[in-house]
Every structure is written in structure tokens, then in C-alpha cells.
Amino acid sequence: MGFVQLLEVASMPVIQVLLVSALGAFMATQYFNNLLSPDFRKSLNKVVFFIFTPSLIFSSFAKSVSLQDMISWWFMPVNVGLTFLIGGILGWLLVKLLRPNLKVEGLIIAACSSGNMGNLPIVIIPAICDEKGGPFGARDVCRSNALSYASFSMALGGIFVWTYTFQTIRSSSLRFKALEAAEILKAPNKDLEGNVETPLLKGKDDENAVIEVLPSSYIEDSESQIVNEQDQSHESKKEKQSFFKRIIEVVTHLLAELISPPAISIFFGFLFGAVAWLRKLIIGDNAPFRVIQSTLELLGNGTIPCITLLLGGNLTAGLKSSSVKPLTLICIIITRLFLLPVIGLFIVKAAASYGFLPVDPLFQYTLVMQYAMPPAMNISTMAQLFDVGNEECSVILLWTYSAAAIALTAWSTFLLWLLSY
Length: 421
Fold this sequence. Notes:
Blueprint: H1 3-27, H2 38-64, H3 67-72, H4 75-98, H5 102-113, H6 119-130, H7 139-186, E1 189-190, E2 196-202, E3 210-215, H8 216-258, H9 261-274, H10 276-282, H11 290-300, H12 303-315, H13 326-353, H14 361-372, H15 378-386, H16 390-419
Antiparallel strand pairs: 1-2, 2-3
């Protein structure tokens, strides 16, 4: 295939994503009566998460994945882990070079390390199989395999996002809030007589907290006394509670990912695909319960358009803010969309040369594209959860996803050419 043909095959899925995302963004504005309002997006996201996505994953896995296939895919969890590890190191180096506000340090590291391993691969990778002249074989077989690879990628990405990325943003937010609190205590206020005074906030957890203005000398003595008492009686207890609290949070979110509807659907889809007599119950023209598979396929068809509409609607928040420096955005885009995929390409090619990967070139394509994906949308959820950097996160996601339209097309074209020979 010539370059123009490869470019056409690679660009069509990305253009489709752009068009549907643009429609979603337009539907989230007042010109469309806020059809995709924040509340509606939350509700639609729940439908996608609990109904559409599990249906798509189960129907794909049960139809195309066997026990031998799952064993041969052992490198994909390693590959996903490497994307987070290498991206995290690059993000950390970026923070050290740029020295940004502490408020966005965690967001930068998360944006560089945590790629969108689920939604975009499910949209883009199967769509490659729909184009004529693709290098991945027959359309039906290619699409079925692509959905299986993308579904497995989604499950793995969710586990890493809610462990590694969650802790990255959490620790950054705690450090930022501690610094913010310290600056508030140090900020002096002057009364009408010119005496220096410091605000003391009483009743921290009370909604009707009362602020008393006291002389700074009295405040200093009171603060030192309070600090000494807290250090003596609660320091060791707080450290232990904080440590166990972190462990409990990580385990809770990890378990939530493992028992989430997409993860459960992967397990049962793999079970029905690997066990012959279960497979014959729902797969095939003579299967007694084939209507179940047909119904799940019908529901699964709603996943891709809904996900893409939500993607466009969620990115509109980034248009309302300019709180991130252009240099920071450029560095994140270069790191996430260009530098990391180059490293990933060498890793995947080395793994293939040592025989670690299946023969299917689509599997190699999926592995490299995992490095090239823009940041995970769950980063925005975590920023809202810890109430830090919400606007900055929206800006980062908006511009990285805008740049990803070009980057994904370029990488897809290059990989199609590379895997065609």
C-alpha cells in the first residue's frame, strides 16, 4: 500500500472520533440547550459503564478469546505497566525542569504516565479493521480481535489508573493543601489601628466556623502550645492512621476496579470463550441461548457513540480557563504523544524479536498505540475527588486531546506502514 492509502486508513477512525466528539462538545453548549449537561453526562456515563461497555466486552471475549489466546497475551500487562512507569519518570523529570506550581505537579506526572487505555482504543483500533486495504486480514476476524485487545487493555488500564495515578494525584493534593494552609496561617492582617494581627479559624469542620482576630504575639504562643500538644499526643497515632488509610484507599479502589462491571464482563467473557460447552450455549447458529449473545451485541453497539459524545462534552470545560502555561502544555504534549511512543516502539519491537508476542501484527499495533494515547479521562475525576487543579486538568485534557488528533493519525499511519512489511 502507498503512503496516501495508509494515511487514509489511519485517519478515518480519528476523523470519526473528531466529528462525534465535536458533536458532543456542541451538544454541551447553550446553542444545543445544554443537551449534554454535566448531570446528564454523569447519568449517561453510568449507563455506558454499567450496561453498554460490559455488553460489548462480554460479547467480544466470548466470541473470539480462548484460553490459549489469554496465555499468549501475557506481555500486555507488562506493556501497560511500562507505559505508566516510563511515563511517570518522564513526567517527574518534566516537573523538575519546569518547576511548576505545586497545584499542577501531580497532574503533569499523571498526564504523562496515565494513557487512555480503554475508551479510545475501543473506538479507534476496531475501526482500523473496517477500512479497505488494511494490513490486519479479514474484516470480521480483525474487528473481533481488535475488540478483545482493546477490552483487555481497558481492564488493565483501569487497575493501574486507580492505583498508581490515584496515589500520584492524592499525594500531590495533600502537599498542596498543607502548603496552602501554612500560607494562610502566616498571612498577616492589619486592623484599623495598624496593629499586626493573624486570623485564627475556629471550628474547622463546622460550617458556621467563627473567625476571631487576635494579636500576633498571642497567636504565636497559642499556636506553639497547640502544636506541642498535638506532637506529643497525636503524632504517632496520625502517622499510623495515615499509613493504614492510604493502604485501605488503594485496596478499596483496586477491588472496585476488579469487581467493576467491565472487569466482571471480561472474566465471564473469558470463561465462556475458554470453556467449550459454555461457548456452545450462546455462540453459533445452533446455540440454544444465542439470543443472549445477540442482545449483548446490540447493547454493545451503543458503547462507541456514547463514549465519543461524552469525550467531546467533557472537554468543553477546558475552553473556559487558561490557567496552565503554554510551555507546560507543549512539554506534556511532546512527552505524552511523541517521546513516550518512540520509547514504546523500541520496547515492542524488541519483545517481538525475542518471540514474546503473538504473530498477529494487530497485537503489536495495539501495544505501541497504548504508548501513544492521550491522558486518561479518569484524571479529571480524581482532580474533582481531591478538589485540586480542576480547571488546570480540563485545560491539559483539552489541548492534549486536540494534539492527539494529529499524533494518533501520524503514529497509526507509521505503524500500518511498518507492520505491512
